[in-house]
Description:
- The chain is mainly α.
- It has helices at 2-26, 35-45, 53-60, 64-76, 98-122, 125-143, and strands at residues 80-84, 92-96.
- It has a single domain, classed as Arc Repressor Mutant, subunit A (Orthogonal Bundle).
- A two-stranded antiparallel ribbon has the order 1-2.
- The longest helix is centred in the N-terminal third of the chain and has 25 residues, at 2-26.
- The protein starts with a helix and ends with a helix.
Amino acid sequence: MINKDIQFASDLRTVVTRLTKKLRKLSKTGLQFSFTERSTLSLLLHSENGLLPSELAAAEKITNQSMSQILNRFLKDGLITRTASQTDKRKVIIAITDTGKQVILQVLSERDEWMADAISKLFSEEEYNSVKNAIGPLTKLVDFE
């Protein structure tokens, strides 16, 4: 049974990796940013009150120094703001700007449009439902530590 599980895991990893690479290439806007940069902007997009640089680094599983380089680029490009924390002046809160929101939403839109078009043209109703039903279990994989 282990060999079947390993083969299944390998097949799933391969197809997810290939799909991810394809989606990256299909977004002209997204090509301007690394995977970690896009992911960081996405985290900030979904954060109502902003995040600390250390929280962003931990979420992306990179060093604080690497996150600092990303944030410096974003600040220079007008994609984020840095604001001193109201409770602890030593801390800085990172928030996404309207420009940053527009950029990440454009990346997501380009990918979603391609994906929706491909699904509508390629999937039978049964395939559509199978993939739709797999989203929950696949999300568990993403969240597994």
